[in-house]
## 1
Amino acid sequence: MHRRHFPRALALLALVATAATAGAPGATAESPTPATTRLHDTIDTILADTRLAGAQASVVVVDTSTGQTLYDRNGDRRLVPASNTKLLTSTAALELLGPGHRFATDVQTTGKRRAGLLSGNLYLRGGGDPTMLAADYDALAAQVAAEGVRVVTGNLVADDTRYDHTRLGPDWTWDDEPYYYAAQVSALTVAPDTDYDAGTVIVHAAPADRAGAPPVVSTTPPTGYVHIDNRAKTVTEGETSISIEREHGGNTVVVTGQIAVGDEPASDWVTVWEPTGYAADVFRAALHRHGVRVLGRTVLGQPTPETAQPVARHDSMSLGELMTPFLKLSNNGHAEVLTKEIGRVLSGSGTWTAGLTAISEYVADTGMDTGRLRQRDGSGLSRRNLVPAAEFVDLLSAVRAEPWFATWYAALPIAGQPERFVGGTLRSRMAGTAAAGNVHAKTGSLTGVSGLSGYVTSADGRLLAFSILLNNYLTASVKSLEDQIAVALAGYREGAATTARVAPPAVPETPRTPEGVECSWVKPITC
């Protein structure tokens, strides 16, 4: 690749612009304009909030048309970015894989077929698709049956060898492991619904018809891969307090607590231990439903022979379409799959190391100084990720020149837009302000960590790139402070004819949910 130092070039343009306006009152580098001074004072006041006492803040705002820095507070300070890390992963994926990239899941065999009998193994080969639903495995099974296969004499082999077998990020905390946002990463997996949290199962606990009986527990999708240990009870009345937890190291899910007769079922997303086996279980059940009997056992992790012949195939949505659930819902699993997929496509190694190396090379090509940051995973779940706000703003400024920018910009959460796959993690924030429908930005949250980085169009038409990183605070949340800064930027006005108006990028139509597929609207969005 040729390095394209867009942000550095824009900085030079800013110097030229500053010199050109030096004769105007208040427009010299030594003397900021009144509007810029007011903006500084406003943001400084917001950051002086007592909730940030003893905390760290890194905030940078840049006019993308000129490269002029409008605000910089500790912009070179490396802070934990949480899910703002996905800005690096998503842009690199679009550039290195391409918006049209798709994941293939296929069924192959080396066996001979005669009169409905397949003599040999059936291979289910995973291509990394994080959007595979039980319905997709059912469609694959239907294709196998349509090929005339009725009995498979060999094994069902689940091939997940496109990626390595490191399932969890090395820096992830152990107590996150049962929860949907820290699912194990495999090239062969299942998502329970169109949030596409691959490697998870939804466990439902419905009240029994009478008090004293255990709740009725079911899963989405139905699977025997997860064992339910139901210790909960149904009560006549009282507050529902169902807890659903998977035990470490296996697939026993313990259900405890109580639920009242007549209450709505309690549901929760739970990760599975070894998602390859989960996918194989769902597919094997689908084969059975379609009249295909596998006589052998299920074998995990063996590669498909090169001489195997195709039987069935499923292709995922395009990467450009995947950006919507990925970024709107801040899907950690998508980020990690894309990291390994980048490694596999570019170097033949489906590992975090290979993927992160390629991501680093790409973001350096945009002008980010990779010597000043550290990326340890694709999603931001690692607390060893460290990125300065100024480097995020450099990336945000540079990618506006990419041919896929409009798709990516539209996939970012949009402030104050209540539709889940439009507003995403910002859907309930900044509503009724100048930032609503205006701010396109990536959120980020860990305990004591919050971030918001993206774009806002100012009151005088400037497209501003900004990054707000807040670390080491002790209060429950500081997101209202981020919102105040974003609203201030939306209301910023330098003055008439100081810069050309920049129209926000056109927003492509949001992809529709496939017909017949239900969406989940229950799970709270993390960020």
Note: The first strand starts at residue 56 and ends at 63.
## 2
Amino acid sequence: MAKMTAGQALAKVLVSWDIDHLYGITADSINNTVDGLYQERDKIKYIQVRHEEVGSLAATADAKLTGKVGISFGSAGPGATHLFNGLYDAKMDHAPVVAIVGQSATPIMNTYFFQEMDQDPLFVDLTDFHKQVTNPEQIPYVMYEAIRYAYRTKGPAVVIIPDNLSGEEIDFEPYKTAKVLKPATTISVDQAAVDQIYELLKQAKHPVLWAGLGLKDARDEVVQFSERFSVPVLTTAPATGVMPTDHPNFMGSRGRLGTKPAFEVTQAADLIILAGTNYPFSRFLPKGIKFVQINNNVEDLGKQHDIDLTVLADAKPFLAKLNEKAPIASTPFLKAAQKDKQNWDAWLNQVADDDQDGLAPEAVIRAIKENSSDDAVFGLDVGNNLMWAIRQLPFNHDQKFSMSAWFGTMGYALPASIAGKLSYPNRQVFSISGDGGFSMVMQDLLTQVQYQLPIINVVLENGAFGYIQHEKITANQEPYGIHFIGANWAGFADDMGAIGIQVSDRQSLKEAFEKIKKLQASGNTKPILIDAKVKNQDPVDTSFMPIDPDQFDQATIDTYTKQSNLFDQPAFSTLLKEENNR
């Protein structure tokens, strides 16, 4: 045993779990805990953010990108409440994180002192693990248990520490219990279920595999399944990259963040295999489709849609077993789907090429795609920028990205990029934001500057909350509260000690990335901000696309295609008829 402050013992617990950095802002109610971090500064790095929300979002992004627990902290009162955005994002996206929350010293608790409040009830809806320590000896133990809880539940845990307790000296001996992160047992593959699904595949004319994050480490199995059984694949938006995005059988995602081919193949499907996902919008699919669901969480089976065949299994080994079956020849359905994807990709490029009325956002994302490395990391914000990014960015090698999927909090990209660069220091890292989301967290560009993180931040400035603007338009409402003034974001970046570059057309966009290449080659350590002045163009809404002549009259089709600028895009039903007639 060694004598040390309880705050230092806490830091040693973090280090024992291989945590090498954490985020927060110090204050009088957490100073002793931070001093404990100082004592272990050679083993764990304290990243001083400019807003606790940024720290909590970065910790959540760390967990999503690496699978390791993310840690953030805040002081009592306002520091604690600022942590909520990141913590709720972790809860809804099932990311293991721990928040350390300061509290007034015990002698002044319950005396209506400055910033003193009863914080424990705040976290009741967030997590079952919200514990306030009552003596200094508990601090390392409760921290240890919080990390175990976060890993076990894949969600947040909260440890509240009165500041005087973390400053007291205790006897501490490191815990010897092995750091077990995954259960030792796995769900076996049921051969009867494999046989049943194979029979359904042979009978189906229009089968589709819909893959979720449960298959994030199963790219080879997914590709083999698709190619072996001639099945087009789509993913949920957060699972983009489960199948290489440039594979001809990959259709993209369905919904607002989706694509035309993903929408159309699921509309035409007669069999959909949901694997590793609890996708909520599957409930809106047409009637008459047979559904199979493969999931290792029994609570998720049938939660979103009535299922014809449920399989309780890990999707990766189950697909591997299924892939042992005899192949199924390519079908007109798959060939039509491949053609639909080719047309969609060509259309995106045509839209990107058109800067007659201003720079197209698609052109900016395409430039990022063309200039990003095969192991790039992307922090993606919420809004139209996310729609463009998910549709165009390459996830065909070892690229990674993080997004706020279920909670959908704006301002996510910049914190996620900080997490990405700290967790993967040798990789190229981007943040992609709209001007609305970026302006919520822009102060933490200083964090990138302070820690010499050469992140490429891309701000798509259109002077509006574009994602909500679309909802206003479709609801026949006035765009009240949608538009706002812009800024010289490149100048802002320069003033913050970063490198600002403004672009407004394809030529200046090309020159910007040429400059960035030179900066990277010279060993630049400053963050870069591309201030992209783009036209306020509503991206095509792919959540519902009335373009099938077998279902909609020509006037409806013409109105939709004109509003969406969806030219040279024949309906999938037309492509399928052509393939059937060959």
Note: The chain has a mean pLDDT of 94.
## 3
Amino acid sequence: MSEMHADVVVIGGGLGGVAAALAALRAGRSVILTEQFAWLGGQLTSQAVPPDEHSWVERFGVTASYRALRDGIREYYRANYPLTDRARRTRDLNPGAGHVSRLCHEPRVAVAVLEAMLAPYRGSGRLTVLQPAVPVSAETDGDRVTAVTVRHHGDDHVLTAPYILDATETGDLLPMTGAEYVTGAESQAETGEPSAPEIGDPANMQALSVCFAVDHVDGDHTIDKPSSYGFWRDYQPPFWGARMLSWQTPNPRTLQLSTRSFTPNPDDDPWLVDADQRVNPGDGNLWTFRRIAARRNFTDGFYPSDICLVNWPMIDYFEQPYVDGPDPLIVEANARELSFSVLYWLQTEAPRPDGGTGWPSLRLRGDVTGSADGLAMAPYVREGRRIRAEYTVVEQDLSLSVRGDKGAVAYGDAVGVGMYRIDLHPSTGGDNYIDVASCPFEIPLGALIPQRLENLLPAGKNLGTTHITNGSYRLHPVEWNTGEVAGALAAFCLDRSVTPRAVRNTPDLLAEFQAHLITDGVELRWPDISGY
């Protein structure tokens, strides 16, 4: 068992973990970064989820380093892909012309850009990346975490640092370190949230999804019939209003049954796609909703087909909780069976507009998602463990119906900004969608400070939110902002020999830290705009 030491240890190489590592490295600190899967980037890459972003992302509302990531993705396409002249000249290039985001792209491109952002620090020796690696245990001394043991290629490594950051997808370090944390849904009596249930349930969490990519080319590419296909084909959740494998699904905002369309390779113009969630959620046609490669953005014939990323209501697995359940591996296996069943249904039985059934020419693109079985290499986990923090963000802080013209709560300890509707998918407790308009909000430093532990910081979706507000804080740019602040805070505390708690609760230190963030390109306030 080897021992490794750095100024900052970041466990988890998703978006928050990479942002945390970069922030600490920019501040001159050494970092050990670990990641379970073959790709860094988490929900953007190994989970294959195109970025979910707010409507103003091209102008403001994200950190400078997140903007550098987005710009890098576009430049990678311009440098390496045979784009049409029009696509190449477009400043706000959307390679997939998807409706969910102004930047829909293939996950492998984001991997390349993230690796390029980290490369100088690897070369200098200030960054060590252990990959694949998973945390297996942690040691504590009072209110401090002294070490985390990770398993890397069958060997255990003991990692030590003055600051340990948990950037895992599910908050894996929280139970290992004895940190106070919550899971699932809090009761309305506990949080006062209008959308919270009357009775809390720690096992009531948002659905897990295993995404996949498909294109539509000549030939019969039908997969083998999944063993559980019969169950999923006939399954109708009590609140769904139709069979789950159908074009009818609840509308997240109204809960009324709505009918989606599906048209592989429509003869549409990528130039005309306006990915603006204020105007249209974009999920009417499922092919273009999360399309990650629009063939008409590339020279004629280079892509024989668009590439469509399937992250649709039908693949949401909400039968069992994934986090703190009896066997997460079984839950993931079941979610993968559901995704394969959806693909098989699409290929064989899905109703077509011409009256036929199935598209056997749909081809699973595991080469695009980088996985052995053809699906995304990692499950998309919307909700995991969350720290009990000095401050917990509640629905009343950002709900448009609650706050109205006042806008979201302005925090004195703001360390970033975010914006997304409070968007909860169906849950393991039998809840339907919860989709609530929100105001552009600030990220409070108090949500990153554990109630007790002094040197463990959340660097992703595990900060101090509730089941409800996690629906706004779980998206790509907010996760990145959270991680970036955690990494910057660790470096700031090391430089001044202070604790994160002292930074938040000492006015002069807080003002200095906020000024540092602003200098580093982290926005702390929104202009005068309305939510949606």
Note: The mean pLDDT is 97.
